[in-house]
Write a structure and sequence with these properties.
Elements: E1 12-14, E2 34-36, E3 59-61, H1 72-82, E4 88-89, E5 92-93, H2 96-105, H3 124-133, H4 138-141, H5 146-155, H6 175-192, H7 197-221
Parallel strand pairs: 1-2, 2-3, 3-4
Antiparallel strand pairs: 4-5
Amino acid sequence: ISICRDLPNIEVITFSVNGISDLEPLHQCQNLSELYLRKNNITSLDELFYLKALPRLRVLWLAENPCCGPDPHRYRMTVLRNLPSLQKLDNQAVTEEELSQALVDGVEIMAPPARRSVENGWSESSASSAAGATTEPQSELLGCSPEEKNKTQEELDMKPVPRDKYSSFSPQEADCSRKKRNNVLNAILLLMKELDAEGLEIIQQTVVRRLQACQKKEVQEE
């Protein structure tokens, strides 16, 4: 997520299912309008402090994070109190009544989450997150199942990949290779949202040439 510090003009970000716990790198993305953070490791709603400075943020998907807590109403009211410009939260439209109620039931976040420093310069929460990353299932952090991939594509309004496309994976293919392929595909889909017509045409031509080369190779192997 630290790469976002170098992408101030990005408009849509999907980081669902990535083990993310710190939203500080997003506070410079002033053009961000849609942010998808479903099913990560965000433990505190204080992280919303970094999103309050994003004037164009209209869509946020934060469900299935620890910060949502056991009280859905309090969670939603707190998010809307701090981000009143949202038009959709967790794939549910925001109403004027909710925004008014949020002023009563929501908790205003006035400061960023506390992170105590440790000797090596990492924050304690970052160190804990890194330690947790070594024990969490690899599939949660580096890759995702076909269902999760389709969910990510749904967030980007893209057509899900049919399940039968995954049948071509070799049973002997290393898990890390599959996860790398998933991450590369998600990154490409995300970055394509940043391209104009000319850029997309270049991508299309490159893809066509690549497909032709792959098909030619398959024919030769047969």
